[in-house]
Amino acid sequence: MAHQPDAVLLDMAPDGGGIEAIERIMGTRPTPIVVCGEMAPHAPDALAAGAVDVIGELDASPTSPQYASAVQRHMRVASRVRVITHPRNRLRVRGLPVSDTAALVSLPRPTSSSSPRCPECG
Description:
The protein has 122 residues and is mainly α. It is built from five helices and three strands, in the order E-H-E-H-E-H-H-H. Strand 1, helix 1 and strand 2 form a beta-alpha-beta unit.
């Protein structure tokens, strides 16, 4: 365990293993990940894999002088985000489909007779 960064800036092509890299980082050593570059147009996939933020063209063009300050701003905010272990890497290791999140959502929630119930929720 040589390094424990406050946040990771990921600039990889999605077909170059970017999504899998996010899943592995979040599944083994959860760290806030900010995505930029070629991954930015794939923001929904990156966020679903566990990234916490995306630096896109709306922030600043990568060739503009404002891009460096946008990266600093996003990294500063991301470094304060508390993250948890993301399940997609564990699902992939077990051979389960990671694209079918409906199976995860439809699992019954555990209930306890001793837990208080919300009067508004029922």
